[in-house]
Amino acid sequence: MLKKRAIQIIKMLLVCFILFSLHSRESYAQDKGVGSITLYSHFNADSGSIQIENDYFRVTKIADYVDGHYVNKTQFSFFPLYSEKMNASEKMALASDLEQYVYQQKITPDNEKSSDKKGYTVFSNLDKGVYLITQNRQENSAQKQYITNPFLVSIPMVSDGKLIYDIYAEP
Asked: Is pLDDT at 57 greater than 70 in this prediction?
């Protein structure tokens, strides 16, 4: 009887240890301070997917992520706050308005890169916040017909209740 009781106690301690370990890992993942945005530029043709090399993109930080909420940066303070609850039309309209404002005010993007031979553009070490992704249409691009509408990306992004810091998009 004493032996059974000792085994039950050991099992309970083991279960508690496992639960504590899982919780600790999840908390650590939520504390990640930086993320990345990977863009894949391509179009589908009869012969398959064709990657677009030298497609130029700009990233401009619109809002900071403070205590679980987005707070617009000062120069964007009069725009509506970004929210995960916004529908696609609202996000598209906001991105379009922001792109126009950034262009008119000649605001320098936080980063600017072109896609590689495989069509990938990677922006790394981005702080938490909301980013406006725009295509730099002033550069000479091999693909003149491939035009990307501006769009917004949040770091972290919420998916199935989990925080995602490394974002993948196909504009």
From this structure: yes
